[in-house]
Amino acid sequence: MGKYDEIFKRSIHDPEGFWSEAAENIDWYKKWDKVLDDSNKPFYRWFSGGEMNTCYNAVDRHVRDGRGEQTAIIYDSPVTDQIQKISYKELLSHVSKCAGALKSLGVSKGDTVIIYMPMVPQAAVAMLACARLGAVHSVVFGGFAPHELAIRIDDSKPKVIITASGAIEGKKLLEYMPMVNKAIELADHKPGNCLVLQRSIVKAELMEGRDHDWDDIVPAAEPVDCEPVQATDPLYILYTSGTTGKPKGIVRDNGGHAVALRWSLENIYDVKPGDVFWSASDVGWVVGHSYIVYAPLLTGCTTVFFEGKPVGTPDPGAFWRVISEHDVKVLFTAPTAFRAIKRDDPDGEYLKKYDISGFKYLFLAGERLDPDTYHWACKLLDRPVIDHWWQTETGWPITANPMGIEKFPIKPGSSTKPVPGFDVQILDADGKQVEAGKEGLVAVKLPLPPGTLPTLWQAEQRFLEAYINVLPGYYFTSDGGYIDEDGYVFVMGRVDDVINVAGHRLSTGEMEEIVATHKDVAECAVFGVEDELKGQLPVGLVVLKTGIERKEDELKQEIVKMIREEIGAIASLKQAAIVQRLPKTRSGKILRGTMRKMADSQKYSIPSTIDDPAILDEIKEALNRMGYAQ
Ligand code: COA
Ligand code: AMP
């Protein structure tokens, strides 16, 4: 039996033994009573009764153990032309003072705090300061519009919002404070205080009494020590797109999360304490939570905060410069970033300028890795290019080629094998396992390993309905795919209304809800079509209210504006067309899947349940007008 098989089998057959050993790498104030608490199935809890603090494990412990002078965070910001290095000792000072400042604003254990910040290291300081106090942070991606921020304010009811005056996004200057003000105006819940990091690129106007300048109160604050919390207490809430306009508040606990992430960095990414690990994502996404902040810091690594883009800041050599300048061992990013580099520098000319000899692996996730991009990256880098698959819900990889355990031959299109702890199976709609090579629903047999979602924030019923009740005994991933005869997992895409645009997870259901509020729209369908750069892009088809006549182009502009204003520019909805009717089944279900296949010029069969097949001709014409289904 190979090393992977042995470890994997143990993780499934003796999860308590397996994870209690992994937990030795974490410092506990009090050891757990039960490794896997299954007293309230299907709400499994890990390390119940245990007490620890995530911030202590990510910061204080390393200073205690002699890593105080080591760089914890490298802030590399081509958009503001600066590079800063923060040692673990300095990080400890910043975090304990930030915790002190939050305490002075009334934040204590169990309170929630929203963090709406760009890619500056103060975002990590704020997250860790919350963890230090036992407060629950909810980071909101800076690309979300005020309406999205307001939804998250109302759901998580933060005591404080931590934000910055602005950011440079590519080449655009963005002001954050007007968006925060608008969100607070839209929300029913009114947070009492905002902590605002004033950046030299733009100054925010502060509201007397509510807003506090970071530089006035954080450096002067009384440092605060770590507050012991239960392993099962929440560390954070991260909202992610579901199938409706109401995002799902994924809850992450403290103990299981620390154990799993610490384990994952060495075993999946082959990264050891002291190594430089770079995840080129954003703190607002799960990749940012797990692999910019928590996993590298829990492991005692150096993590890179990159405030830039793969291209245009200033050129497609940005990634190679950062790898070379900071001696990055492992880079993790989304395939879109590599498609953008490939588009701007197809022959890899920029790479030739840099020495990247210390670079060992490229890990890609967040969306399907298309074989073209995979082969291009392999040829260019001459190093392992690892596709791995996971979700906001799981917080760390479900399938991967585990570089720290055993290096498997790569099959393009597959994210390789289930990660220890995840019993991945392919089921049909009745919950029966399908044979090797046959496509079905990707599910994970319960219990999920530590670090995965225990529930949704104050929405247990929704947790059960979305993930547990669909396939009893399993966690339903909402992805379709298959496992081949060698045990390799191929994830083919979502089976629900979630799409991935440039690695950003978005809900077409939510976009439909927004478009439907347009005064002239009777009905609409939004679905994802293939895009060479961003993987997928949303497009909309709308039916006008009776008696209304509109020019298609004008209406399209209004719809595009609505989506930008309500969700944000990242939604990237740029195309919409008017049709007389939408294709539906006789029971009234809109045939989005059929339209998507038509748009992508894929083979499709006309469902036998279709109400009126003649409608499809008009749909094809509308798709043609938008440049699809050619
Ligand atoms: N704040 C505000 N706006 C943002 C934003 C942020 N953090 N991120 C993106 N946007 C805006 C962009 O400015 C753009 O606005 P525009 O329509 O006015 O031009 C829009 O949202 C779409 O952005 P994006 O999808 O990023 O497209 P792009 O053309 O600006 O850049 C890439 C293309 C490929 C360079 C970019 O998508 C990229 O770097 N992708 C990597 C994705 C990634 O790291 N994902 C993380 C998951 S692991
Ligand atoms: P997110 O929650 O934003 O991480 O998005 C999770 C979804 O992205 C998954 O359910 C998949 O549909 C998709 N995804 C992530 N990684 C991969 C991958 N390596 N291959 C295919 N799809 C992926």
Strand percentage, roughly? Answer: 15-25%
Q: Can you name the CATH architecture of the largest domain? A: 3-Layer(aba) Sandwich
Distance from N terminus to C terminus (CA atoms, Å) equals 51 Å
Per the principal axes of the C-alpha atoms, what is the gross shape?
globular
* CATH class designation of the largest domain: Alpha Beta
Low-confidence stretches: none
- CATH level-3 fold name of the largest domain: Rossmann fold
Cα-atom radius of gyration? 24 Å
Number of strands: 31
Give me the number of helical elements.
Answer: 18
Class per helix and strand makeup: alpha/beta
Q: Could you give the order of strands across the largest sheet?
A: 5-4-17-16-18-19-20
Helix coverage percent of residues?
Answer: 25-40%
Ligands, ions, cofactors:
coenzyme A, adenosine monophosphate
Largest sheet: 7 strands, mixed
Task: Give the averaged pLDDT, no decimals.
Answer: 97
CATH H-tier superfamily of the largest domain: ANL, N-terminal domain
Q: Supply the number of structural domains.
A: 2
What does this protein look like?
This protein has about 625 residues and is of the alpha/beta class. It has 2 domains: about 5-310 and about 390-475, ANL, N-terminal domain (Rossmann fold), CATH 3.40.50.12780; about 500-625, ANL, C-terminal domain (GMP Synthetase, Chain A, domain 3). Helix content is about 30%, strand content about 25%. The protein has a 7-stranded mixed β-sheet with strand order 5-4-17-16-18-19-20, sandwiched between helices. The longest helix has 17 residues, at about 90-105. It starts with a helix and ends in a 5-residue tail after the last helix. It binds coenzyme A and adenosine monophosphate. The site of adenosine monophosphate (AMP) has 19 residues, from strand 25 and strand 26.
